[in-house]
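Quick one from the shared queue. A colleague (R.T.) flagged Phosphatidylglycerol--prolipoprotein diacylglyceryl transferase as missing a structural entry in our internal table.

Convert sequence to structure tokens.
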Amino acid sequence: MSIHPASIPSPDPAWASFQLGPLTIHTYALCIIAGIIAAVLITDRRLRRRGVAPWTVIDVVLWVVPLGIIAARFYHVFTHVSDYFYPGANLWNVFAIWDGGNAIYGSLIGGAIGAYIGCRRAGLRFWTFADALAPALLVAQAIGRLGNYVNQELFGNPTTLPWGLEILPSAPMFPDGLPAGTLFHPLFLYEMIWNLIGAAVIVLLERRFTLGWGRSLAIYLIWYGIGRSGLEAIRIDPSSDAPLGIPANIWASIVVALIGVALFVIQTIRHPTPEPSPSLGSRSAPVSLRGDVSPSQSIDSDTAQHLR
């Protein structure tokens, strides 16, 4: 029975994993995979509208995903050193990504490196790919947060709000010294809502203004950095402290938002005109969006369609 009629109940621990023959399938991993699939489909559709050949996104994602996952895990581990390195610790837990603990800021670093490599190999302009990915990334992050809910690992300080999250006292992340039945801020839900609103905001701004040249990515960085800094401030399991006693992820969020602002300003100054048609690789072919027109008209047409 729920503690409050509107409270969010704890998921059954049995939801965290299930057996498929000899294999143990972790729900957290399935949520991450579902988010990746959603991001690929959304990004592919947005790239097609920019004149990029279908499924060119796969050429880039094959670099983005592995490097993003590796960097996400190691970022998490090295901002939670005491959780993994102590006398008698099982060092293999450093690699146990199925138990949760994959930092989005690490994935952004690794994913950006992978995207740069993938775009170079595919002959696709990096900023074109980054802008197409921006809202898709927020959708993917929202889906991935369902895995945190199942693992009972991403929640905020105790709250008396009716939509508080129930956490089982037996859950590994349940804080010491608090009574059973304590409700917590459902950070996973707050971030899901924030991310989905952010994805919609980027799309609406693209339709209203001429962006391109990485400015959609800049809006993503600003939006996510601001939202994440606020959520980290009430998180009950913050990252390890950094200067001034402020959790490392709050500092990282501030830096990310500032990078977004700088990127938007710099790209606006450097590229006051609309971004031209994407540079296309071997899998792509130039696309005329308005039938039989001259090359210059085709470029203008592509530009006009760039943010639709």
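The beta strands are 17-20, 23-26, 165-166, 183-184.
Confidence is low (pLDDT under 50) at residues 280-308.
Added to the table.
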